[in-house]
Amino acid sequence: MTQKIAQEISFDPRLSADSFGVGKLALCEVRLQDDARFPWLVLVPQREGAVELFELSASDRAAVMEEIAQVSAALRAVTQCLKINVGALGNIVRQLHIHIVARNEGDAAWPGPVWGSGARIPYSETELGELIARLRSALAMRA
Description:
Elements: H1 13-17, E1 19-24, E2 28-33, E3 40-45, H2 58-79, E4 83-87, E5 98-103, H3 125-138
Antiparallel strand pairs: 1-2, 2-3, 3-5, 4-5
Helix pairs in contact: 2-3
């Protein structure tokens, strides 16, 4: 079986504005949400016009699920978190994207959802660089 390579697509400006590129998997671009309170990755399937998971082809849906599992495992390995939350809301940003959030008891939103929970705390340049490097290593990605 040949692996599809992610194609370049246009990003909703809101996705680009509050996240940083980590790297690309076969189908999805991986981005780090700029909120140091929660290690929070976003997968963006590289399919122009995709809004809902069910709109993807069967093979793309299967690939997204595998990439969610891969990224979730890497995030847990890097953060040693208690719980991983996964969600594809899209109520504000319609472009299909999947949130993968590392959670711990006592974090800024525990046990509720991270959305709308206080003001974000941006990563420092040092924290950002270190976390992205650890994530790339865990995901076997190049810079």
